[in-house]
Amino acid sequence: MTDYKLEDFLADENFQQWALAEEPLEGSRWQRASETSPAVAALVQEARQILIDWKRESSGLTDEKKLHAIEKILDQAKAPRRTRLVFWKRPVYWAAAVVVLAGGFTAWLVSEQKSERRYQYETLTSAVAEITEVKNTGTQIKNVVLPDQSKIQLAPGARISYAAMDSGGRFRDVWLDGEAFFEVVRIPSKPFRVRVNKILTTVLGTSFRISNNADQVSVTVTSGKVSVQEKLNDRHEKTGEVILLPNEKAVYHVTDGKLTRSLADAPEALQEVPDLDFEETPLPEILDKLQRVYGIQFEYDREQFRGCLMTIPLNGLPFYGKLDLISTTTKITYKVEGNKILITGNGCSQ
Q1: Partners of residue 227 on adjacent β-strands
Q2: Domain range summary for the chain, segments of one domain joined by +
Q3: Contact 267, 294 (CB under 8 A)
Q4: C-alpha dist (Å) from residue 142 to 69, 137, 192
Q5: Which CATH architecture fits 277-345?
Q6: Could you tell me if 193 and 173 are in contact, meaning their C-beta atoms sit under 8 angstroms apart?
Q7: Residue limits of the FecR protein domain (predicted)?
């Protein structure tokens, strides 16, 4: 058996092309190599996954930034300068650099994104004359009450700044770096706004959670109505706006600037939960009741499932747990499509 090493695959241009193909060619030399032993198969799989991860994580970077990332990590590893210069003579060897970067590049990328997040926060708040900042330097949730009596649960490591709310301004403005849950007091004449990175969230009175991670900003609504938009400059110009209702979520992707809407990760009941244990009940009636309880719309062919009678206990299960149990009991599948759930299938098992 050939004594393969990880770098043998990563530095091979033909292997790179094979590994990054949408459908790697069957019967290739790499597949045949994998079949020689479990150890080689594991190496091939590891090398392929590293290349895929590298391509995905570095897709938004310029060549200059990629080189900067490599140089910085190699400097920390005290790699000889001459080695680095030879290494970079041909772009094909970027992939081989992943041997060094498999852990280092991801750490560097997250660090750079966190630095950018802090920069955005500090740039936005520096333009405000009178501002108050609250930081959570502990390991537990920090409860904050704003001058308007709105409440904030500030996650560990997060911080907020807010402008004077008793002035004659049109808005109640808060800036966030990190994650927090907001319960906003309703004042129709003075909307409440939260600025995170390039995202501006505007509400009258509601409860919602904002999470500002290294690669995305997410806003999840618990009650009320929330407007989420990408703010491009100080004139409040925007490229798009998403209106969120309870159990809906908007996600702003930092790398590509896309703002998308979907359902919350864990939808909660919006009213007192009735008895959800059913006996010989048509599926459309079950879905109607779930729609009323959670405020989430189901799209499906009612006539197709009208004769589908179900005896099923749904009490005590989370929302998606209920759907999973319905799905496994019947011949249906469900798919989250934006802020709706699509139901498809050919009927129920007998």
Answers
A1: 202, 243
A2: 6-111, 128-263, 277-345
A3: yes
A4: 35, 9, 20
A5: 3-Layer(bab) Sandwich (3.55)
A6: yes
A7: 137-226
pLDDT at 91 over 50: no
CA-based nearest residue to 300, from 268, 326, 261: 326
β-pairing, 172-177 vs 192-196, is parallel
pLDDT of residue 347: 67
Full strand arrangement of the beta sheet holding 258-263: 142-145, 151-154, 179-183, 207-212, 216-223, 248-253, 258-263
Q: How many angstroms separate the CA atoms of 275 and 264, rounded?
A: 23
DSSP 80-142: -HHHHHHHTSSGGGGTTTHHHHHHHHHHHHHHHHHHHHHHHHHHHHHT-SSEEEEE--SSS-E
Q: What is the pLDDT of residue 237?
A: 53
Q: Which long-range contacts (CB under 8 A, 24 or more apart) does 39-45 make?
A: 40/1, 40/2, 40/4, 43/4, 43/5, 43/6, 43/9, 44/9
pLDDT in tens, 162-196: 887 776 678 888 888 889 999 999 888 889 999 88
User: What one-character DSSP code corresponds to residue 270?
Assistant: S
Average pLDDT over residues 228-252: 77
> 0.85 cut: is pTM over it?
no
CA 106 to chain CA centroid, Å, is 17
| Termini Cα distance of the chain | 54
Task: Give pLDDT tens digits for 26-35.
Answer: 556 777 777 7
Closest to 159 (Cα-Cα) out of 133, 184, 188, 198: 133
The 10s digit of each residue's pLDDT in 195-228 is 887 788 999 778 999 988 777 889 999 999 999 9
Fold type of domain 128-263: Jelly Rolls (2.60.120)
**Who's near 309: CB < 8 A, 6+ residues apart?**
280, 281, 282, 283, 348
Question: What is residue 197's DSSP assignment?
Answer: T
For the four alpha carbons of 252, 254, 256 and 257, in that order, the dihedral sign comes to positive
